[in-house]
Amino acid sequence: NLRKLERTELNQAVINLGQAPSGRNKRWEKILKYFDSDNPSDWKLAIIEADTLLDELVTKMGYRGDNLGEKLKSVEPSDWLTLQSAWEAHKVRNMIAHESDFFLTRREARRVVDLFQKVFEEFQFI
């Protein structure tokens, strides 16, 4: 069907986005280094950077909006297996960005980084 064909073309268009010749995504590796730190501020930075990467991915896929939230709203749920994961991760990013007293545990940071990873893996981005 046409919808599946469009999705396949979009997926192919983003496969190399941000990837080094080795096939590894250097920006994702940097995000993982932030997460590996013992500093909670670095965990927050990892999530903010992953969210920025997600915004770039959905933009390259052709979704439009003034911000990532608007772009995610335009995604047809049947087109993304990981749409709920993207929303959950983005909501935590918003709490980090807008709540100065937001407390992030290492466990929660790991969960959110894993959510981003699921999305990126669905689109063969990492």
How would you characterize this protein structure?
The protein is mainly alpha-helical. The longest helix has 21 residues. The radius of gyration is 15 Å and the shape is globular.
Q: What Rg do the Cα atoms give? A: 15 Å
Helix content: 55-70%
What is the number of E strands? 0
Judged by helices, strands and strand pairing, the structural class is mainly alpha
Spans where pLDDT lies below 50 across 5 or more residues: none
Strand count, sense and closure of the main sheet? none
Elements, N to C (H/E)? HHHHHH
Q: Count the DSSP helices.
A: 6
Distance between the termini: 27 Å
Average pLDDT figure: 87
Instruction: Estimate what percentage of residues fall within beta strands.
Output: under 5%
Shape estimate: globular
What are the SSEs and their pairings?
Elements: H1 2-14, H2 26-36, H3 40-60, H4 68-73, H5 83-98, H6 106-122
Core attributes:
6 helices, mainly alpha, 126 residues
Short description:
This protein has 126 residues and is mainly α. 67% of the residues lie in helices and 0% in strands.
